[in-house]
Amino acid sequence: MPAASPTPSQTGSNRVARGATGEDFRDHLATADKEGRRRWLFPRQPRGLFYQARTYFSYLLLALMFAGPFIRIDGNPLLLLNIVDRKFVVLGQIFWPQDMIIFAVALLVFITGIIVFTAAYGRLWCGWACPQTVLMEMVFRKLEYWLEGDAAAQRALARAPWTVGKLSRKLLKQAIFFALSFVIGNTLLAYIIGTEALFQIVTDNPLNHLRGLLFMVLFTLVFYAIFARFREQACTFICPYGRFQSTLIDENSIVVAYDHKRGEQRGHLHRGQAPEQRRATGNGDCVDCFECVTVCPTGIDIRNGTQMECVHCTACIDACDHVMTKIGWPKGLIRYASLNGIERGEPLKLTPRLVGYTVLLLGLGVLLAGLLWTRSDVETTLLRAQGALFQQMPDGRFSNLYTLRVLNKTSHPLPIELRLESPEGELRVMGRELNVPAQQSTEASLLVELGSEVLAGGSTPVVVGVYSGDRRVEVLKTRFIGPRDDRQ
Ligand code: SF4
Ligand code: SF4
Predict the structure, then answer these.
(1) With contact defined as beta carbons under 8 Å apart, do 298 and 311 qualify?
(2) Counting atoms of ligand 1 from 1, which one is nearest the CA of 295?
(3) Where are the beta strands (DSSP E) in 129-238?
(4) Cα 481 to Cα 461: distance, rounded to the nearest angstrom
(5) Taking burial as the number of CB atoms within 10 A of a residue's CB, which of 214, 285, 368, 433 is the most buried?
(6) Which ligand lies nearest the alpha carbon of 306?
(7) Which atom of ligand 1 is least distant from the CA of 311?
(8) Are 89 and 79 in contact (CB under 8 A)?
(9) In whole angstroms, what is the distance from residue 14 CA to residue 45 CA?
């Protein structure tokens, strides 16, 4: 269904959608008219060095994104976030709910990293690496240019009356968008449940996988809605990062910025007018051509200053550089710069805020590295068997019964051996050898036998070493209940 076709009333151009007077742009959304109706954007396809670099970088990211669920490290996926079974794999390392502390610290590192990165480099992430921008601008938008032509052709098609030709072009586009959304939705599902489970849903009887199919349809519809309909609104209204940026960015952050000192007073370029003559009339280097506005995928005018809608996609840099090159003036009227860089020519400065965040980030990074370094392959709990006290054996020694639970966090079976480290005595695993299958847990009963000479009253501390081969992977501490001194 061609749900995303704009109606003629929505077919405003970027140039119309601007708040370019500079006085009222903060009171208006570039993508809404006065009545609050959606103004559909038709950004012109950017061309230039930054766009080219972003295109190549996006190929890398897209390859990684779609291949990610299939890449295996030591038999495990590169990334798996199985919320349902509470199993997580990062870079082939399996993490369990027992590793929650590591996840909590990793989350703190991630959030602090975002703060530091944004404070220093603005929304570099949004423009270059965010999946929403990469998929929208480098996949869906490019397909749209290929199927419907550049901005002017798209606008003309939107205004044209509905004919069989227009209907079939629109339907073809929406069908391709839907198919792509299906692929993206399934990729996300593969990151959550794994490729094996996904293939089972696809190949098995659908009635056996109703929940999986429901999520498959849901994800497809969400992505279709985002890329066919919501587009830049996902960044402006939905993404919290865009909203936070105003609190994270300061006058020293690097952003995509218009050099107003050089550009103002803006004015059209008159034929044959030399730069000196132009400056003598009070005009700056901005020739008010609106090229930077027509390429903007969020419909804003960067000359109004840093705005929440700006995703730092660099399209306006390319457009303006192209204009400056054409008229023979230096490039960089719009460029990556800080406000202080433009106002006072200052380079990127380490402000106390940035230093504070960086120290915090380093501290959390060290803590995370420490937690990962000391993370054990097994998670073991040793509890005294419920209701059991101690037993005296025929040779006079005493015994306690314990229940042991071992979780094998690795992707291979793990033979486990238990050794009584202190005090001197005997430890016996009841029944069978401990061999824990990969990614599973097992339970066993074990008996600790101590002579009365090593007992320290009614409760004696006991240390048990958990060994895998010759490697001690964990140390367990518990207590041994024995008779009180007066009964010995
Ligand atoms: S203002 Fe420039 S960098 Fe920001 S979104 Fe628009 S084109 Fe991209
Ligand atoms: S592209 Fe450059 S010269 Fe043209 S309006 Fe934008 S800032 Fe001014």
Answers:
(1) yes
(2) 7
(3) none
(4) 9
(5) 285
(6) 1
(7) 5
(8) yes
(9) 12
Kindly give the distance from the C-alpha atom of residue 235 to the centroid of ligand 1, in angstroms, as a whole number. 12
Closest ligand relative to 285 C-alpha: 2
Tally of helices (H runs) and strands (E runs) in the chain: 18, 16
Per-residue pLDDT of the chain (488 residues; tens, 9 = 90+): 333 444 433 444 454 434 444 456 666 777 888 788 888 999 999 999 999 999 999 999 999 999 999 998 878 888 888 888 777 888 887 887 777 888 888 888 888 888 888 888 888 889 999 999 999 999 999 999 999 999 999 999 999 999 999 999 999 999 999 999 999 999 999 999 999 999 999 998 889 889 999 999 999 999 999 999 999 999 988 888 877 777 888 888 889 999 999 999 898 888 777 777 888 888 899 999 999 999 999 999 999 988 888 999 999 999 999 999 998 889 999 999 988 889 887 776 677 777 887 888 888 889 888 888 877 778 888 888 877 788 888 888 999 999 988 888 887 888 888 899 989 999 988 877 788 888 788 888 889 999 988 888 788 999 999 888 888 888 899 999 888 765 44
Using CA atoms, how far apart are residues 202 and 271, in angstroms rounded to an integer? 64
Distance, in Å, from the CA atom of 362 to the CA atom of 47, rounded to the nearest integer, reads 39
The CA distance from 180 to 250, in Å, is 38
* pTM for this prediction: 0.78
Phi, psi of 76 (to 5 degrees): -105, 155
d(CA 434, CA 78): 30
**Bridge-based pairing state of the strands 471-481 and 76-77:** unpaired
| Residues at CB less than 6 angstroms from ligand 1 | 256, 295-298, 300, 302, 310-316
